[in-house]
């Protein structure tokens, strides 16, 4: 059974940074993409970024381009999302996704 566990969320001031991690168990990452989504209160879940398992190619939602960096370490079965220059509008629960599997989410709050 695939399990995804996010960590690294928290409270940060505007302009600060956080690094989210997604630990994968019960599955080899192989050629599967890892995606990050977020959901703010009262809003639909939206895609933030993803990284391909085949060639390491990355994609970013427009509002996070240049600020967020997605990465993966297949040997450690882990995905990461480095978030810099955080703004209040980045406040949301962030989820890791692989195929049909989702993590439980980690809260990111950007506030002064």
Question: How would you portray this structure in words?
Answer:
There is one protein chain. With 112 residues, this protein is an all-beta fold. The chain is 0% helix and 51% strand. It contains no helices and eleven strands. It has strands at 3-7, 10-12, 18-25, 34-39, 46-51, 58-60, 68-73, 78-83, 92-98, 101-102, 106-110. Strands 2, 4, 5, 6, 9, 10 and 11 form a seven-stranded mixed β-sheet that branches. Strands 1-3-8-7 form a four-stranded antiparallel β-sheet, with no helix packed on it. The model has no long low-confidence stretch (mean pLDDT 95).
* Arithmetic mean of pLDDT: 95
Share in β-strands: over 45%
Based on CA inertia axes, which overall geometry fits?
Answer: globular
Strand segment count: 11
Order of helices and strands: EEEEEEEEEEE
SSE-based structural type: mainly beta
Query: What oligomeric assembly is this protein in?
Result: single chain
Q: Helix coverage percent of residues?
A: under 10%
Runs in which pLDDT lies below 50 for 5 or more consecutive residues are none
Distance between termini?
40 Å
Rg measurement, Å: 13 Å
Question: How many individual helices?
Answer: 0
Largest sheet: 7 strands, mixed
């Amino acid at each position: 059974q695939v399990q995804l566990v996010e960590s690294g969320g928290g409270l940060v001031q505007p302009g600060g940074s956080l690094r989210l991690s997604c630990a994968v168990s019960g599955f080899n990452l192989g050629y599967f993409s890892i995606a990050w989504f977020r959901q703010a209160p009262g809003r639909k879940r939206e895609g933030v970024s993803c990284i391909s398992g085949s060639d390491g190619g990355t994609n970013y939602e427009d509002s996070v381009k240049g600020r967020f960096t997605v990465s993966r370490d297949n040997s450690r079965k882990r995905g990461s999302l480095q978030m810099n220059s955080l703004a209040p509008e980045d406040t949301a629960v962030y989820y890791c996704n692989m195929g049909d599997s989702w993590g439980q989410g980690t809260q990111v709050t950007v506030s002064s």
